[in-house]
């Protein structure tokens, strides 16, 4: 038996793209096609990484929908999220920006969702009143709220569609500066801290243990190799070493702490009904159907209100900015050239389409680029688009297995609370990372930063405690203002954007010089000696998989912002 230390099998003998110089240590570049068995193995890894990120969303969403813990529909919502994630991931990787990214549910939409459901007409009745309802009434109780969210998400996503396919993304980035991004993204994690506290406090020992174990695996043992056995034709069995703790820290933590809770349940340490018991939601798994294909409008025809749509716009804009910031990083990690403007336009447009479909399907959430899967590419050095397409297929198939989604609902609440403490903290830190571009010695920047962080928290907390405070005489206007002013990421983002663009400051001070280098939008020069698709080295990476020869014959396609033949003067 041979012993090797590696993270992936030997590279394919296929030719590599010219952009390979950008990622010399990559095992498989964006246009490479690894062997099918290796694709499946890497696709499973991306799937498991995605599950670790998406499973937490229903733990905040479903209680706000007035859904009981043991309701089997909670598993249906998770399965719907996984199913839609698979559909949009395939569209994005194949026809969208064509980068190897996973597009799925996001925490960013929870902030406006909770603001909408905090309106007087959507607040949940007392628990004893819910218990006294019939099964039909309880189902309608949460479905009417889901229909409100579905309509709001689907209509708000039209804005993202227009931004992407019209080419307005480039103009949007001229006013969205680092001091706009910092409060918009960071306030997502800060706003949700109360939910992390409520969930973790159900058993602090388990919650703290979960946070400590996740920290140990992801930060301390990330580089520790783990042995595994692989078979290679002609060479027999061999031992391969791979970074298990760096690849799956969330899943390992959940599995171990879930097992600990199971042992404490079996030994009677946790009494009957304790939220840390592993059997407290056993009925969800028992009552869930084995197979169920999610479909648009499965919870009824979506409803639309002005307050809901405008509130969800905050989540849409936050996700747009976040995804754009990921594109250059992903391209560099998978040995691809910098994404041209048409690819970014198309990526945002497809993300908008994904958010619309997620709303219509009834996931209660939108879509965004998964940062966790971006990290997986950096660890494995496998940036192949084909791997992501296989992962999308696995997601679609698993989304049909309703029992599978129901199993994740059984994770004990304190374990989820411990994960929240890390996850929400990382979202906050990701937003704060944009401060690296600005001059923090500037009193101007510190003033903008302080106001755009503190004022939204004060205003939104006051509105939560006084839900009927806004009285204009018109219920629609009251609801709209309550949602808009009660959404921290919207108030903070608007404040940061307005103040940064109005208060005088040099480009260097505001971070615009460094930011423009990071977010450079590549386009083809308008020279007749260049092909209509732009620079020769970007053709094979960001072109459509089919129809390019015909598209290049039509000169009008050079003026369509989302087509690979698009050209714009710099």
From TrEMBL:
What family is this protein classified in? Belongs to the nucleobase:cation symporter-2 (NCS2) (TC 2.A.40) family.
Gene Ontology cellular-component terms for this entry are:
plasma membrane
Which one Pfam family would you cite for this protein? Answer: Xan_ur_permease
Whether Membrane counts among this entry's keywords is yes
Identify its membrane topology class: Multi-pass membrane protein
Residue ranges of the TM segments: 35-61, 73-93, 149-169, 175-193, 247-270, 299-321, 390-411, 417-438, 445-464, 484-503
Localization, UniProt: Membrane
Q: Which domain of life is it from?
A: Eukaryota
**Keywords from the named record:** Membrane, Transmembrane, Transmembrane helix, Transport
Q: Name one GO molecular function term.
A: transmembrane transporter activity
UniProt main location, coarse: membrane
* Phylogenetic classification of the source organism: Eukaryota, Metazoa, Ecdysozoa, Arthropoda, Hexapoda
Give the range the annotation lists for the signal sequence: none
Protein name per the record: Xanthine/uracil transporter
Q: List the InterPro entries hit by this protein, alphabetically.
A: NCS2 (IPR006043), Xan_ur_permease (IPR006042)
The region called Disordered is annotated at 1-23
Glycosyltransferase as a keyword? Answer: no
């Amino acid at each position: 038996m041979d012993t090797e230390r590696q993270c992936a099998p030997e590279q394919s003998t296929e030719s590599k793209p010219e952009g390979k110089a950008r990622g010399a240590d990559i095992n498989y570049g964006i246009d490479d096609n690894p062997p099918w068995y290796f694709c499946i193995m890497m696709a499973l890894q991306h799937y498991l990484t995605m599950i670790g990120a998406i499973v937490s969303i229903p733990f905040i969403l479903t209680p706000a929908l007035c859904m009981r813990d043991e309701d089997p529909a909670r598993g249906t919502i998770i399965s719907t999220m996984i199913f839609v994630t698979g559909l949009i991931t395939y569209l994005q990787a194949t026809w969208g920006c064509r980068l190897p990214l996973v597009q799925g549910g996001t925490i960013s939409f929870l902030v406006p969702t909770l603001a909408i459901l905090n309106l007087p007409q959507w607040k949940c009745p007392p628990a004893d009143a819910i218990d006294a309802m019939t099964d039909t009434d309880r189902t309608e109780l949460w479905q009417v709220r889901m229909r409100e969210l579905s309509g709001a998400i689907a209509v708000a996503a039209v804005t993202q569609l227009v931004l992407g396919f019209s080419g307005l993304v480039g103009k949007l980035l001229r006013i969205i500066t680092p001091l706009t991004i910092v409060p918009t993204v960071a306030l997502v994690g800060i706003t949700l801290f109360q939910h992390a506290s409520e969930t973790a406090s159900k058993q602090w020992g388990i919650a703290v243990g979960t946070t400590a174990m996740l920290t140990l695996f992801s930060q301390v043992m990330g580089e520790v190799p783990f042995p595994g056995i692989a078979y290679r034709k002609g060479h027999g069995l061999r031992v391969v070493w791979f970074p298990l703790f760096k690849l799956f820290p969330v899943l390992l933590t959940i599995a171990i702490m879930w097992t600990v809770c199971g042992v404490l349940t079996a030994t009677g340490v946790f009494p009957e009904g304790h939220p840390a018991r592993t059997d407290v939601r056993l009925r969800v798994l028992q009552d869930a159907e084995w197979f169920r294909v999610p479909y648009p409008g499965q919870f009824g025809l979506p409803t639309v209100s002005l307050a809901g749509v405008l509130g969800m716009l905050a989540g849409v804009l936050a996700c747009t900015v976040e995804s754009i910031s990921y594109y250059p990083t992903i391209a560099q990690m998978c040995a691809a050239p910098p994404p041209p403007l048409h690819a970014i336009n198309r990526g945002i447009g497809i993300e908008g389409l994904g958010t619309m479909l997620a709303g219509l399907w009834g996931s209660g959430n939108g879509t965004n680029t998964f940062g966790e899967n971006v990290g997986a590419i950096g660890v494995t050095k496998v940036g192949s688009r084909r791997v992501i397409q296989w992962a999308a297929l696995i997601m679609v198939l698993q989304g049909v297995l309703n029992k599978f989604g129901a199993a994740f609902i059984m994770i004990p609440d304190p374990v989820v609370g411990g994960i929240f403490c890390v996850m929400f903290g990382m979202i906050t830190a990701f937003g704060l990372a944009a401060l690296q571009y600005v001059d923090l010695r500037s009193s101007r920047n510190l003033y903008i930063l302080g106001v755009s962080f503190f004022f939204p928290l004060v205003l939104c907390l006051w509105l939560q405690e006084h839900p009927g405070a806004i009285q204009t005489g018109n219920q629609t206007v009251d609801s709209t203002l309550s949602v808009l002013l009660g959404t921290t990421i919207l108030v903070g983002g608007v404040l940061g954007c307005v103040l940064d663009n109005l208060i005088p400051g040099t480009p260097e001070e505001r971070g615009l010089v460094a930011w423009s280098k990071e977010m450079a939008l590549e386009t083809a020069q308008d020279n007749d000696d260049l092909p209509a698709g732009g620079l020769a080295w970007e053709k094979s990476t960001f072109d459509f998989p089919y129809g390019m020869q015909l598209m290049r014959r039509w000169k009008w396609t050079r003026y369509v912002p989302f087509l690979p033949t698009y050209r714009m003067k710099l």
